[in-house]
Each structure stands twice: as C-alpha cells, then as structure tokens.
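Researcher: We're teaching a course module on how sequence relates to structure. For the next exercise, students receive a sequence and then see the predicted structure as tokens, so they can try to spot secondary structure elements on their own. Here is the exercise chain.
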Amino acid sequence: FDLAGSNEFENAEIAGIVAFIEDFVKEVIKLHFENDPTRKADLVKNFKESVVPKYLGKLNQLAKDNGGYLWKAKRTWADLYVATVLAMLSGRDKEFSDALEKHFPDLLKLHNTVESLPNFAKWIKERP
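Model: And here is the predicted structure for the students to work with:
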C-alpha cells in the first residue's frame, strides 16, 4: 500500500508521529470516561484550552510543513490514523468540528484528502 517509510529509520519517524496522536487519543479517552461532574468540567476546560491546541497545533504544523501530509509530503498510515481520529471526534462534537475548521486548516485539509481517497471513501459509504 506504500504507506510506510523505505527503511527502519523512516518507519520509526512515522511511528513517532503515531505515538504523538495516541497521546492525544489518551486525553480524549480520559475525558470520555470521567464520571465525576466537577472533575469532568476541569478536564473539558483543560482539553479545550491546552490539549487541543498542543496536539492539533503540532499536527496542523506538520501537515502545513509537509505538503498536506504528516511526514515528508508522503501519505502514510499516520495520515489515515489521524483522519480516522478526527472523523470520530468531529462526528460527535460540533464544537470540535468548528474548532478544527477555524484553527487547524491544514489538518482539516489532510482529513478531507484522506476521506476522498477512493477506497477510503468507499469504506465510509459502506461501513455499518
């Protein structure tokens, strides 16, 4: 599928980007499963003010610096992964979707590029 690097070093660089995305996902999960209303309010505030700008800001900059992709102007599995995470969050939270569009345009462009890939678009259309 040509979604990886050409050697172990390049694959490690891509895996580092994916690990960064996974750190963001961990923050999402922590927020999602918090049951204490006071603690959840604090987590939501921190998520909006710190977590989203830190993670999506860095990913947006990578997309901007790499010709619309996260690594060396080449589509990789990291792009597919981040697009899937963004689709999940955007579909559940209008405020997140609006923030993505307003503050992270290069990341949104990457998301749209991935979702327009023929096989990816077909999967989205046909998934249960």
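Model: If you want an answer key for the exercise: The chain has six helices and no strands. The helical segments are 8-33, 37-65, 77-92, 94-103, 105-115, 118-126.
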